[in-house]
């Protein structure tokens, strides 16, 4: 079953109502370096910015990289603006499968997530990760939650298209088969020593990364598709609260 959040509440048929981000009071967390493509890209950005090879060690470690991403008021819904930082020169979207998790740590559904990232800030020093990842509208979710406790098949495809002035400037795709870590294992580590009374939404990492020559610009349109949830579409703006 697909559930949509609207101004009138949750529904399986939004009809002509606007669709909101499918989040109530949950925290949003994220996992990093869960795909080999992410590992190689993160190592490259570290080399460009002068960092080290710590992402290679994260990829092969038993313990995953997990970090806080957003509260509900920082999350963009379908059709809303995601934002890039004014103090960053290299910004990308990260299309990800998002897990909807109960307070007890059970996966109850799936949605689409966009983990907006400032790659130059992140690559310069791993201690800068919160600034690269956590700011207003640095996360988007939607358009629907696929309610199911069954794992999605490994053949599930994730697609990304970025359009600028009506023209496609980047597209890419991957499948869940390319993901190194099992969603259940990510949840198990996330819930160690940490409680989530309202449940949690966990972004599971990306396997689609634009080339080093690419950076988002204000006005770009980002479309992420994962069936059966559909397509999450957002337009890029500049973070209002950031300073140079």
Strands, total number: 16
Describe the sheet with the most strands: 9 strands, mixed
CATH architecture level-2 label: Alpha-Beta Complex
Q: Work out the helicity level.
A: 10-25%
**What's the alpha carbon Rg, rounded to whole Å?**
17 Å
**What is the CATH class?**
Alpha Beta
Approximate shape: globular
Per DSSP, the total helix count is 5
CATH H-tier superfamily: Fumarylacetoacetase-like, C-terminal domain
Element-level helix/strand string: EEEHHEEEEEEEHHEEEHEEE
Let me know the average pLDDT: 91
**What class, by secondary structure content?**
alpha+beta
How many structurally independent domains?
1
Remind me, CATH topology? Fumarylacetoacetate hydrolase, domain 2
Overview of the molecule:
There is one protein chain. With 244 residues, this protein is an alpha+beta fold. The protein has a single domain (2-238), classed as Alpha-Beta Complex (Fumarylacetoacetate hydrolase, domain 2), CATH 3.90.850.10. It has helices at residues 36-49, 54-60, 119-124, 129-133, 183-190, and strands at residues 2-6, 9-11, 27-32, 65-70, 75-76, 81-84, 91-92, 95-101, 107-115, 117-118, 139-147, 157-164, 167-175, 200-203, 221-226, 230-238. Strands 1, 2, 3, 4, 5, 8, 9, 11 and 14 form a nine-stranded mixed sheet that branches. Strands 6-16-15-12-13 form a five-stranded mixed sheet, with no helix packed on it. Strand 12 and strand 13 (167-175) form a beta hairpin. The longest helix has 14 residues, at 36-49. The model has no long low-confidence stretch (mean pLDDT 91).
């Amino acid at each position: 079953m697909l559930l949509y959040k609207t101004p009138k509440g949750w529904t399986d048929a939004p009809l002509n109502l606007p669709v909101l981000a499918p989040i109530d009071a949950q925290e949003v967390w994220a996992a990093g370096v869960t795909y080999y493509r992410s590992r190689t890209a993160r190592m490259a950005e570290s080399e460009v910015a002068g960092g080290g090879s710590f992402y290679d060690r994260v990829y092969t470690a038993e313990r995953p990289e997990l970090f806080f991403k957003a509260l509900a008021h920082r999350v963009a819904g379908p059709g809303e603006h995601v934002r890039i930082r004014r103090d960053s020169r290299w910004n990308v979207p990260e299309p990800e499968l998002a897990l909807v998790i109960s307070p007890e740590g059970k996966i109850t559904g799936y949605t689409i997530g966009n983990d907006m990232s400032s790659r130059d800030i992140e690559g310069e020093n791993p201690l800068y990760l919160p600034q690269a990842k956590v700011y207003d509208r640095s996360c988007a979710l939607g358009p629907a939650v696929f309610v199911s406790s069954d794992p999605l098949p490994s053949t599930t495809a994730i697609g990304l298209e970025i359009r600028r002035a009506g023209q496609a400037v980047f597209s890419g795709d991957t499948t869940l088969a390319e993901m190194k870590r099992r969603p259940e294992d990510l949840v198990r580590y996330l819930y160690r020593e940490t409680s989530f009374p309202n449940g949690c939404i966990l972004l599971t990492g990306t396997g689609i990364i634009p080339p080093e020559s690419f950076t988002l610009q204000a006005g770009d349109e980002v479309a992420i598709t994962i069936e059966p949830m559909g397509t999450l579409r957002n337009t890029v703006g500049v973070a209002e609260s950031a300073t140079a």
